[in-house]
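Dataset card, provenance and construction

Sequences and ligand SMILES were collected as paired inputs. For each pair, a complete structure of the chain with the small molecule in place was predicted and serialized as structure tokens. The example below shows a pair involving flavin-adenine dinucleotide. Curators did not alter the output after generation; any descriptive sentences attached to a record were derived from the structure itself.
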Amino acid sequence: MDMIASLEGIVGDTERVTDAADALEKHSRDFAYHTPRNPDAVVFPKDKHEVRKILRFADENGVPVVPFGEGSSLEGSVVPIRGGVSLDFSLMDEILEIRPDDFIARVQPGVTHGKLNEALEEHGLLFPVDPGWNASLGGMCGTNASGTNAVRYGVMRDQVLALEVVLADGSLMRTGSLAMKSSAGYDLTRLFVGSEGTLGVFTEIVLRLYPVPEKTVAARAVFESIEAAGSAAIAMIRTGMQIGRVELVDEHTMKAVNAYKNTDYAEAPTLFLEFSGNEAGVESDVGKAREASEAEDCRAFDFEADEEGIELLWEARHEAALAIVAASPDKLAMSTDVCVPVSELPEALRNARETIASRGMYGAILGHVGDGNYHAVFMLDPADEDDLARAKEVNEEIVNYALERGGTCTGEHGVGFGKMEHLEAEHGDSIPFMRKLKKMADPNGTLNPGKMF
Ligand SMILES: Cc1cc2nc3c(=O)[nH]c(=O)nc-3n(C[C@H](O)[C@H](O)[C@H](O)COP(=O)(O)OP(=O)(O)OC[C@H]3O[C@@H](n4cnc5c(N)ncnc54)[C@H](O)[C@@H]3O)c2cc1C
């Protein structure tokens, strides 16, 4: 079988099927340290009809298919470890409909969260899920992404009302509806969100939107220790205030941010905070946050109230991971992604710091601590076996610590093949059920094989 010729026949356009070396290389890897593997071809579908035909062809001919958004995921989810087709959604990037009165947007999977938010500005609306990369909404559904706003608005799964899905055999189905709630049957939308391209391919996504808050204030609170910063964050949550964002960044990350952004923030554990709502509510919340920070002996509590200052502050936070990566240009990143019950957070942060130090390693810690999710980021040379083994050991210890406390191995990055063993440790008893689901949805193992379990 001449696969390239068959795929060109399906899409009727030689430009949108390629096995050029640079395209294969780009689709061989994600943003992290995982070993790359080239696909045999990259295809850029233009619509759902093409996606259906490509999948039918692949399923009948034993060709693996790996959906690809922006390739920014971190656990090997897009690496085509068995070759086949990388199905790149960058040309399916149309915002199909914005319904301001229903707080709904209908989009194709290649639309990025940045592009959607730009289009929402004129309606006074926002889409809140904001990973630190301008990721595609299809990929964000794939990993059940979250980000700095999750503490207030929830994660991707909380925003997706409906999906149009192409299954492995090329059949098409819709899940969910345009209604804000439903009790109609099994919740397949929530099942498909987070399935990392292993159960079906999204060709349309219906998302929930929110009004832009009347007033927003951002602040930075600087602490002596990472545990004190974590404790202050928990104390703020406990007051029941409507905190918008509460992000922790350690001293190593602040140093990297200063070098990357040319800023002069204190190089100490810092909480980045945001409060939003009406004028009176915001004022009261800021007061409570200041009190909680002072109770943990914070060194400084600074505000940003104008739009430009707020934007700069969040730009620095959003680019923190990129800053860490830029500080070690010849290395690749490994990031832990555990999430613990929030009351366990300060101890978990202390434990992570000690575990990293006990191996003589350098690891920056940062996270969306309002919901108990934090990352230890190690820069490593994957070819250096000792380096890799040490980082994996520390990662595993951090995961085991979280699991022992009822947490999860991944709060937002997904499993891919980087966390398969950790998924086994967390959900060994329910993996047989997951396997049955996979077998039913994709009996020939066409969709993103070798991932998750
Ligand atoms: C600097 C940086 C910061 C980050 N910060 C965060 C963060 O704060 N929070 C967070 O959650 N993540 C974060 N990430 C990780 C990453 O941005 C997310 O995992 C994001 O969801 C990936 O989107 P993507 O478009 O790059 O998808 P990809 O990486 O291309 O794909 C991700 C998964 O979705 C599947 N997929 C893609 N498109 C489809 C489709 N149409 N149908 C079905 N499946 C599909 C893929 O097969 C794959 O399994 C960060 C990454 C970087 C590099």
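Derived descriptions for this record:
The two ends are 30 Å apart (CA to CA).
The chain has four domains: 3-90, 95-211, 215-323, 330-413.
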